[in-house]
Design brief:
Length: 172
């Protein structure tokens, strides 16, 4: 029985099959959304032996302390001593959309970034080394395999905005 002949038949199953396919797609999208909103943080966050944790074996993480070339990204540096570098870092983070500072202490900051569409949560960590005027950074996705370069682009945006705010603060 073809679709046109179903118009006058009460036993036609084609529209039901189409409906089931649509429901499957909706359920799949729903599962992707709720898995992306996972509140669970990875256990590999924080400072261990004076360093940020290594990136996992998936291509969805970058770190300025990585020994793997594919995961490496330059740290954030500043050219001269500045008494409150952490305030510039906080201003940089707070100027970005969908961020939440989860924790911080003297030389460590953990931030959650939430993506706009699917609400995936990524963890970004900063390790501040004032003596060497360096902020080491690690940005990692919580779920999925690839991030399509989102973490690398995010860190580059943070670096650019940090530099702009630092230059503004020191030119006063």
């Amino acid at each position: 029985m073809d679709f046109d002949s179903c118009k006058n038949s009460r036993f036609c199953t084609k529209p039901v099959i189409l409906f089931k396919k649509q429901n499957s797609i909706i359920v799949l999208i729903f599962l992707m959304i709720i898995s992306g909103c996972s509140p669970e943080r990875h256990g590999n966050l924080g400072i261990k032996n004076g360093r940020l944790s290594a990136c996992p074996d998936t291509p969805n993480c970058v770190s300025s302390q990585s020994i793997k070339k594919s995961d490496y990204i330059d740290p954030i540096v500043w050219p001269q001593n500045f008494p409150d570098i952490k305030s510039i870092l906080f201003d940089t983070i707070n100027a970005m959309k969908r961020t939440r500072i989860v924790s911080h202490d003297k030389n460590y900051v953990h931030v959650e970034f939430t993506t706009a569409v699917f609400r995936f949560v990524d963890d970004v960590e900063f390790l501040i080394d004032e003596k060497n005027r360096t902020i080491h950074v690690r940005s990692a996705s919580r779920v999925g395999y690839s991030d399509l370069g989102v973490n690398r682009k995010r860190v580059e945006k943070i670096r650019k905005n940090f530099s702009r705010l630092f230059n503004k603060a020191t030119s006063k």
